[in-house]
UniProtKB/TrEMBL annotation:
It comes from the Eukaryota. Its main location: plastid. It comes from Brassica napus. This is Acyl-[acyl-carrier-protein] hydrolase. One of its GO terms (molecular function) is fatty acyl-[ACP] hydrolase activity. The keyword Chloroplast applies. SUPFAM superfamilies: Thioesterase/thiol ester dehydrase-isomerase (SSF54637). Residues 80-216 form the Acyl-ACP thioesterase N-terminal hotdog domain.
Length: 362
C-alpha cells in the first residue's frame, strides 16, 4: 500500500480497512515515491474562477482534490505553465517485443494533456473544454499530430511526460510534449499537435473566440516554446495526397464501439492503428516506427467503413533526431498514407511515417 502523509490517508484507510498490511520490504520500495508528486497545488483565485464546478474548486482550494488527483504522479511545474506526469508502462501496453506500441505512446500523450487541463480547473466531462466552450457546445478536435520516438520504453519502465499548450493563430491551439526516461533522464521522444474548435451539435469548425482564448492563455507560456525548435523541422512538412494506385492497402476497416470517444467520433489514436494496418509485413518485422505525422481531414463515425492505403516515398525528408542522434539512416524507410471512406472515397486522413532498422537485441 502506498504510504501517504497527505489527505488521502484517511480515505485509503477506510477503503482498505479490511486488507492486510504489506510486508516491510514492499513498503520500503513503494513509500520511496515522494508525496510531493501526489499533492495538487492550491489554485489561486484566477484559476478558481475558470471551473464551473464550484464543489471541485472548493476542494482544490483546500488542497484536497479528488482521490485520483492525490494519487496521480503528476503536477504543474513551478511556474504553473506546463505539467509533468510519470507513467509505468503496463504489460497490456507493449507489443511482442515487450516495448510500448506507438498507440500506447499516443494514448499517454492524450492522457497527460487531459490531466493538465483538469489540473488548472478545466472540464472533467470533456477534452479540456473551458466554461465558455461548454456553454456554447464547443469541443477541441485534432487537426495534426506529429510524434517522434527515439527510444521506445519497455514493460515496467517509468516515463515522464511534460506538456504545455499555446495559441496557434485564430482558428486553433497547439500542444507539445517531451518524453523522458525517468531512470536515465534521457529524452526518448517529442511530439506536437494542432487542435481546432468544432460545434458539437452542427459538427462544423469554429474560430477560437477571444473569450475562449483568454480562458486558457493564462496557463500558457508567455514566450513561444516548441518541442521542435529546429528550423525547417519535419513536423512542419506539408503532406502530399497519396494518389491511386497505392502499393499496399487494407480495405474495409470498421470502427469498433470502443473506438468512439467522449466527442462521439472515432478517437484520433485509432487512426494511427488504421494507418499501420497497410504497412508491409516485411517492414514491421525488420523496422520500428520512428516518426509519424497525421493530418486529420474529417470525422469518422461508427458506421463508416475505411480503406487504408500506403506507398513508399522518399520525398518527405529526414527526421529531426534526438539531441544526440544524427540524420536519417540509410536503412530507414518512408511511407505516404491515406485513409478514405470505402464508399465515396472521401479523404479522412493523410500521413507519413518513417521507420528505422530495429536494434539487434529486438
Amino acid at each position: 500500500m502506498l504510504k501517504l502523509s497527505c489527505n488521502a490517508t484517511d480515505k485509503l484507510q477506510t477503503l482498505f480497512s479490511h486488507s492486510h498490511q504489506p510486508d516491510p520490504a514492499h513498503r520500503r520500495t513503494v513509500s520511496s515515491v515522494s508525496c510531493s508528486h501526489l499533492r495538487k497545488p492550491v489554485l489561486d483565485p484566477l484559476r478558481a474562477t475558470v471551473s464551473a464546478d464550484q464543489g471541485s474548486v472548493i476542494r482544490a482550494e483546500q488542497g484536497l482534490g479528488t482521490l485520483a488527483d492525490q494519487l496521480r504522479l503528476g503536477s504543474l511545474t513551478e511556474d504553473g505553465l506546463s505539467y509533468k506526469e510519470k507513467f509505468i508502462v503496463r504489460s497490456y501496453e507493449v507489443g511482442s517485443n515487450k516495448t510500448a506500441t506507438v498507440e500506447t505512446v499516443a494514448n499517454l500523450l492524450q492522457e497527460v494533456g487531459c490531466n493538465h487541463a483538469q489540473s488548472v480547473g478545466f472540464s472533467t466531462d470533456g477534452f479540456a473544454t473551458t466554461p465558455t466552450m461548454r456553454k456554447l457546445h464547443l469541443i477541441w478536435v485534432t487537426a495534426r499530430m506529429h510524434i517522434e520516438i527515439y527510444k521506445y520504453p519497455a514493460w515496467g519502465d517509468v516515463v515522464e511526460i511534460e506538456t504545455w499548450c499555446q495559441s496557434e493563430g485564430r482558428i486553433g491551439t497547439r500542444r507539445d510534449w517531451i518524453l523522458k526516461d525517468v531512470a536515465t533522464g534521457e529524452v526518448t521522444g517529442r511530439a506536437t499537435s494542432k487542435w481546432v474548435m468544432m460545434n458539437q451539435d452542427t459538427r462544423r469548425l469554429q474560430k477560437v473566440s477571444d473569450d475562449v482564448r483568454d480562458e486558457y492563455l493564462v496557463f500558457c507560456p508567455k514566450e513561444l516554446r516548441l518541442a521542435f525548435p529546429e528550423e525547417n523541422n519535419r513536423s512542419l512538412k506539408k503532406i502530399p495526397k497519396l494518389e491511386d494506385p497505392a502499393q499496399y492497402s487494407m480495405i474495409g476497416l470498421k470502427p469498433r464501439r470502443a473506438d468512439l470517444d467522449m466527442n462521439l467520433h472515432v478517437n484520433n489514436v485509432t487512426y494511427i492503428g488504421w494507418v499501420l494496418e497497410s504497412i508491409p509485413q516485411e517492414i514491421v518485422d525488420t523496422h520500428e516506427l520512428q516518426v509519424i505525422t497525421l493530418d486529420y481531414r474529417r470525422e469518422c463515425q461508427q458506421d463508416d467503413v475505411v480503406d487504408s492505403l500506403t506507398t513508399t516515398t522518399s520525398e518527405i525528408g529526414g527526421t529531426n533526431g534526438s539531441a544526440s542522434s544524427g540524420a536519417q539512416g540509410q536503412n530507414d524507410s518512408q511511407f505516404l498514407h491515406l485513409l478514405r471512406l470505402s464508399g465515396d472515397g472521401q479523404e479522412i486522413n493523410r500521413g507519413t511515417t518513417l521507420w528505422r532498422k530495429k536494434p539487434s537485441n529486438l
